[in-house]
Each structure stands twice: as structure tokens, then as C-alpha cells.
Request: fold
Amino acid sequence: MPNQKAYLDSLAIGPAVQHRNLTLVVLLGPDAPRRYRTLDEALGAGSARITEISAAGSVPELRLVNQGDTPVLLLDGEELIGAKQNRVLNLTILAPANASLTIQVSCVEAGRWAANSANFASADRALYARGRARKLHQVSMSLQFDGVRRSDQSDVWRGIDEKLAQSGTHSASRAMADAFENRRAGLDEFVAAMRAHPGQTGALFAIDGTVVGLDCFDCADTLSRLLPKLVRSYAMDALDSPWPMAQTVSAEAARTFLRLVGEAEATAHPAIGLGQDLRFASAEVSGAALWWGDAPVHFCAFTQRLAGEREHPHGTSFTRASRRRMFH
Reply:
């Protein structure tokens, strides 16, 4: 059984980087040689392609063909654009070399079902963090009760509609991509301010001084390549904060979050592709990790606040005061 506590105990807390109301806390961990390609690398080299599952298509499933001699890493929440409609990945997957694989996805473009390309391309972003947290919780519940890794598609669409409204974006096809593109200049400022540090293998994020989640990888090179997508994901939520406050987060709050994630009850499942799919949850946190060998290739966790609560009826987010203090 993979040991998430031992892994999290191995992480060192580095400096914090602040831009507006988003804080990135550098996490330093074991830095292994990279044994795979990222999806961007594989698609760019032409050694992998992603298509609809068939000519008719299926909203929650796509087909990945990896013709390369190296596994390919697909990141939870990573957006795929094109084909019949844009999707995001439901979980992190390590696709084997020279293999074809069915991958689980969620639609983030409710108003289109018509092909505009044969293959998907990867976008420079991931599903906004709040959506990732909710989707992760849904996929974990689906895996536990039904043995499949599906999201609540209606909830995903509702979240996209909220994000379009919050960003003042009109989208004929109700596409998440349009909300991100409408805010590209602002999001790119966050990316420019939050570049990877030497040896950094993970990042813990806080919005308005409250820890909301983390993403860690098995090597610094992977973190460096995927960090811009993750920064855009968290920054999209930071921009929608009703009371944006440029507050830093303490090292104690970061350690508390790591401890709570390490203590959460975990279950392990055979992964789609290579490795083991670790799922964990408690009253405070939920998350997942793709374990390959003796270490996680990708490890992510969120506060239950982010996953479990929708917007206040008056448009403001809210949390119990005790939980907010815990992660400050």
C-alpha cells in the first residue's frame, strides 16, 4: 500500500511567492529522473494522439494512442481542445509505451457537439482549481461505489456557466476556454510571477491567505513544465475572489495542511495505465495520487472547502471560521 504520509513527510517547505491574492509555497522533495514524456511533448512530437472514442463519440471517454517508446503523463484537469467538444481529464494517467488506452474525461463545452478537428490538442491550462476539487471528489465517489472514474457532468457544466458569468464572458458554445482566454492577460501575469524554483517538485497554493490545495510531482523537471497550467488553474479562482486580499500564508499553515493530507484515510486501486490510483479523504481534505513504483508521479490534494461548497446565494464564498483559521 502506498504511504502518502511518508511521502509528505519527505517534503520540505521552501519560500512563498506572492502575486496579488494568490500565494505559491515552494515544496522541495525527492527529485527522480523523469521516465516519461508530458502530454504536450508527446503530442508535439507526433508520438501520441487523442481522438474521440468512435465516429459517434462518447462524452465521458476518449481514445489515447501512444506510439512512442516512452510512457506519457496526462495531468488531472488538463484541457483537451478540438474534435467534437473540449474536455478535461478526470484523473492523472500514465499511458504505457506503444499502447492504446481509453481515458476518462469531462466536457467543458456544453454547447458544441460537432467535430472541428480529427485529433485533440492540449491547452496551456487546467480546469480551474475549484472545479478540479469538485471533480476529484466526484470521481473518487464514482470509483468507490460504481468502479468507474466519472464526474457529475451536470455539476461540471454548472460550474463552467458560473465561471463564464463571473468572468463576464459570452461563449456561444458555453466553453471554459473562452473564460480563460477572456482573462489571458491577467492570468499570464500570475504565470510570469510564479516561475519554478531550482529543485522545486511541488507547489502549495493559497487564495486570500487560506490554503486551498497542492500539486506535487516525482521530479523537478515535470513540475517546471506543468506549473504554468496549474498557476492558471488556481489564478482563475483567485481572480473571482469576492474580497481579494494579498495575504501571505504561514509555514505552520502549510505544515498543517500536509499533516492533514498525510493522515487522511486512503484506498488504492489499479490505475488506468501504469501504477496505482491512490484516493484519500477526510473531513478537511481530499485528494488523489498516481503511484508508480515506490513514489507518486503526481500527488494532488484540496481542502474540502474548495470541493464541497458552492457559492453563497449572494455571490460570496463562505467557510466555517474554524476551518479558515486552520489553513491561514
